[in-house]
Structures are given as C-alpha cells and as structure tokens.
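Example record

The entry below shows one chain as it appears in the dataset: sequence first, then structure tokens.
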Amino acid sequence: MTSALKNMLNLFQGMFGDHFWKNAILEATHWNFHDINVEARAKHIPPKTEESWQQHFNDIFKSKLGVTHKLPAVFIDSHYRRNSLKETAKFNQYTQELFDFANDKEPFECQDIKTVKTELIEIREKLKNM
C-alpha cells in the first residue's frame, strides 16, 4: 500500500466515517483465468488464489487503516478471451457480483459543505432555543 493510497483512503474514511467501508469492494483487474495463469498462481508459495488475495488485502486494510469490516472481492479481467468458456464464465460471474453488490447497497449520501454548514447552524439554533 503506497502512502498516497493510504492517505486517500484515510481521507475518505475521515470524510464519510467507518460505515464508508460497508459500501466498498476490492477489485483485482487483469486476473486472468487462462489455465496457464491459474497454474502459475497455484505454484506460488503459498498459492495465490482469489481467497488468499482477498484475505491479504483485508489484512492490509485492517492493519494500516483499522478496517474491521471484511471487504468482498471480485476478479475482473477485461481482456479475457471471449472464445474461452471458462474465462467468459468468470468474467460474467464477477461482473454480476459487482453489479449485485452495487445494487444491494443503500445509497451513500454525500452532502456538500454548504449543506452541512446550513444544517449545523439550524441545529445550533434549535439547541439555543431549548
């Protein structure tokens, strides 16, 4: 994790709070499902699998950012071979999972600073009048 990425994620977490992570998903791009690539990942020690990749990044996010929510992961290779049934199936599976994840989440409301300041002023006025 680069310091720039860590700073950016800390900024998001600071702006949106810890619940920000419930609307986040990990995505591995160019995770090729050709048999040669799958075999090469299996030869790593320990083997590099979708599960190990997901766990690795969740461990990093936990140790570096304090994220306690386990982030789901998708593995999308936009350069898959369309004539490969396996690669096409994996592309379709993970893009569908990403689509379902996005559709199943509650909308994450973001407000601009003017709106927040206005609401804060109104709340302070109410408190004064109490």
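Notes for this example: Helices lie at 3-16, 35-43, 50-65, 85-104, 113-129. The mean pLDDT is 90.
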